[in-house]
Amino acid sequence: MSSKETVFFTGGAGFIGMHVVPMLLEKDYKVRIFDNMFRGDREAVAALGDDVELIDQDVRYGGAVHAAMKGCSKVIHAAAVSINKSQADPYESMDINMIGNHNVFAAAADHGVDRLVYCSSASVYGDPERLPMHEDDRLSPQTPYCISKRAGEDLLDFYHRRSGLSWVGLRFFNVYGPGQKTTAYYTSVINHFVNRIKNGEPPVIDGKGEQSMDFIHVHDIARSVVLALESEQDNKPVNIGTGIDTTIAELADILIEAVNADVTPIFNERDVIASRRAADITRAKEMLGFEPTIEVRKGMIDLIRAQ
């Protein structure tokens, strides 16, 4: 009988999961991935070794979730429908993100797991009223995806009060890195720029390019998940970002440098609402001991040059 703890990981075969699982194995955990494999890579999962088990199932089925979680001491819940898809098909989004959330949280409470780490999102804030964005700021989620992420945090608080479930909700900012699908809603900007630059064409930027995002590398995201799994503090949402906002104009310059192209961005002069994002990561530092390690320029250049 193995003495290793088993981590139950919904959506563990996805982009973020495939960066987290190797870190869990390094810390001597076993991992039980629960994933419908809609976007997962079976060969990549199989290559992770004997301490990784794959259960090909869907979080919408509560009985399957409950049965599969038996014997697991920790849970990571990452399974979700993307933000773009949630707007195109709100019904599926509510089904997977809301019902799925509840199935996982209720099972974790029933099984008395030590810790549940929930992959939430900075999208719960909507358009921020100030920068950097703090966990106690007003939340204004705008899409079914964002609404479900906020509701997930509220559900976790309910199960903490009702059953003593220990949880940490990680509000991820704009994640990028190797292995990411090009369909992510903000990576389309990166892909559009890179495709034009590689073709010798200048990237086209709407307005003055003042819109910004807090880009955080998936390696740092994965580190935050493992830290949250073992943190002594719990039962709060935590921002996971760099604390630095990168404008679209700055992003274009970084990508031109990465491709080593001789082009200059074209600015499409029109009125653009310049939304900005940057995380206050004070709580992440204090509660998890987390600090980002990969600077945006280096991370972006490494990513593009590796393609």
TrEMBL record:
Pfam families: Epimerase. Gene3D superfamilies: NAD(P)-binding Rossmann-like Domain, UDP-galactose 4-epimerase, domain 1. The chain crosses the membrane at residues 6-25. Keywords: Membrane, Transmembrane, Transmembrane helix. Signal peptide: none annotated. Residues 9-241 form the NAD-dependent epimerase/dehydratase domain. PANTHER family: DTDP-D-GLUCOSE 4,6-DEHYDRATASE-RELATED. Belongs to the NAD(P)-dependent epimerase/dehydratase family. This is NAD-dependent epimerase/dehydratase family protein.
